[in-house]
UniProtKB/TrEMBL annotation:
This is Integrase. The keyword ATP-binding does not apply. Residues 8-94 form the Integrase DNA-binding domain. Residues 78-97 have a biased composition (Basic and acidic residues). Keywords: DNA integration. Residues 78-103 are annotated as: Disordered. GO terms for biological process: DNA integration. PANTHER family: PROPHAGE INTEGRASE (PTHR30629), PROPHAGE INTEGRASE INTS-RELATED (PTHR30629:SF2). It comes from Cupriavidus necator (Alcaligenes eutrophus). The keyword Electron transport does not apply.
Amino acid sequence: MPRRVEPLTDTKIRNARPRERAYKLFDGGGLYVEVMTDGRKLWRFKYVRSSGSESRLGFGVYPGVSLAQARAQRESARAIVSDGRDPGAVKQEERRAGLGRGP
């Protein structure tokens, strides 16, 4: 059974300080901020592929990607997972398609 987590706040993320080792602040639904030893705060989404293996998807660096934006990306990724697709593969396909376009 999944553990209950208190949703993150902008203040909690902003006040998170680096430690000797990287650590995670969970928001729920697979979304968390990984606080690195150098102080960077990276948005990550943990999900289970249709094959049953766990995977992680990065959403960007806080504060460049806000809490609201990360939550919106989580919901989008969860919808992709519920369709039986891999959001990491979808993201790669979108990148490849974007590289082929001209200005």
